Amino acid sequence: MVRQEMYNRYGESAYEDGYRIYTTITRKVQQAAQQAVRNNVLDYDMRHGYRGPANVLWKVGESAWDNNKITDTLKALPTYGPLLPAAVTSANPQQATAMLADGSTVALSMEGVRWARPYRSDTQQGPTPRKVTDVLQTGQQSGFVRLAMHGGWHKCRK
């Protein structure tokens, strides 16, 4: 925040003119505050339901993209802290597999998508999904996935 304010006030000279800035907040406290905001925004978003895929890369029945095309597309997308862009490469009622920008894959189980009731409005969500394919389909660029606290992957939205 301080760096952004300096840049807003002084432009590029904020980096080049040797300014020394002293604040009363430590790096550790600032990082904890940023993590708390990030977690609360994600929790809020998840409480209000799943808004659908960010994009459909290929439709069911069409030829799937090759791994290079998938990873090139994902590499062009931003990451946000623990959130990683992913593309669903296979899905069945029990599990989906998503590819990350580095070419690795993660398994998304029913436990990881159970929260993803369809978004209807700020106060209403649709029914709880009964199977993974109620939420995820092959070919979706599925927003973002994040590593959950217990070590599994969860589907999230940005």
From TrEMBL:
Pfam families: PCB_OB (PF17092). Coiled coil: none annotated. SUPFAM superfamilies: beta-lactamase/transpeptidase-like. It comes from the Bacteria. Transmembrane segments: none annotated. Residues 50-141 form the Penicillin-binding protein OB-like domain. This is Penicillin-binding protein 1A. It comes from Escherichia coli.
